[in-house]
Design brief:
mainly alpha
Amino acid sequence: MTFVKKAAYALGLPVLLIALWWFLSRDTTNFYVPKPGELATTFVDTWIGERFRTDILPSVARFAIGTALAIVLGIAAGVWIGSARRVRSLLEPLLEFFRAIPPPVLVPILILIVGVNDRMKITVIVIGAVWPVLLNTIEGVRSVDTVLLDTARTYGLKGWTRLRTVVLPSAAPQIAAGVRQSLAIGLILMVISEMFASSSGLGFTIVLFQRSFAIPEMWSGIVLLGLIGVAVSVVFQLCERKILHWYYGQKEVQHGR
């Protein structure tokens, strides 16, 4: 697919939706639904300036640290649990219990234990975003081809060498699927954690705009969150293609591309 076709597929529907939005709102004066031009002007005035430093950067930093910790913890614990059948059987009921607890309900408890600070917000992100990585890593390690494991054992591959050359490459596509889910969850929890007892960040600012009836500014914050989500997704896809190049190459050969 050429670059022009890729750009057309990526931008075609958003442009069409914005055009439809402009057409439907051109003669309305609804206070709660700003027009595209008004929203674009408000977006630049609100976020390109002081708020970029005081709200956007702290939020992105919390999201990056929280999701990075969740990914590292999820992969490390997942490899350990997935490699040992007895450990997996022992911990499975406990994992199902904790996974079922929605992370936002832990915010009041974490405020009491950790305090109202960045550690509380990062902890909320880690607790919520770790599960997709952990469970996908367990499943990926558990389903490594036994023939590959037997072959590695025959060639005397043990410990870190076996993990690096056989287990992690085999489980990598499933781990990547878990990381993709954890990024979306981390972004959601970043906003939720900033809505409680916070004085900065995108979640706090959007709620502040909503309570002061600054509707265009509130919508501009929501648009900004969507743009951050798109940027994170694009960066992840580039990294995934780079790390799993052998996997995508194999799929293209299988599909005759």
